[in-house]
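User: For my dataset I need records formatted as: sequence, then structure tokens, nothing else. Please produce one.
Assistant:
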Amino acid sequence: MDPAWSSLARKNWQGLAALTVLAVFAAGHATVFRPTLAGYRAAVRRATQLNMPLDPTDAAPVASARIVNLLAGNSLTPGVAEEQGTSGALTAGLLDEATRLAARSGLQVVATEQGLVSQLPGSVQVHAHLKLKGRYAGFVNLLGALANSGSLLAVDRFRIRGTSDGAQDIEVWLSQLILKRTRSTR
């Protein structure tokens, strides 16, 4: 090595060390942090496109008419929800809707049982149990009808048993969620 360069390097070793550290950090930034930043920006862009901005200062997204109708159709004022929950009207409504949809799906309703009514702070949850008889295709049609009913219904569990006549004995445990309105939406 040239003695002049060697002398210059000894005199300015701090500067060379700083340049080396800068090169290491630049390489780390290019290989690790840039792809992470690009992924974060892509996630923010996707969330904004889905009307879910991540910035808390942004205004809340406006609910679609379909969502507003779904919530309005499945909610009651707190007093009415508690009264109908304790009187059995909500359970009767759930059983009525479920038996109507089962009959429309080609299933025979053998028995119905009302279940527990859970009064929660923001909602009422109603449970029911149905015993049905029919074909498997009818049961699949019932599941589709429940999903498209416009109510907040859930199939908690079900049991299907074959019988000697080719039909199935079907038991379905359902629950429905009725929201309590906390303030007027109009």
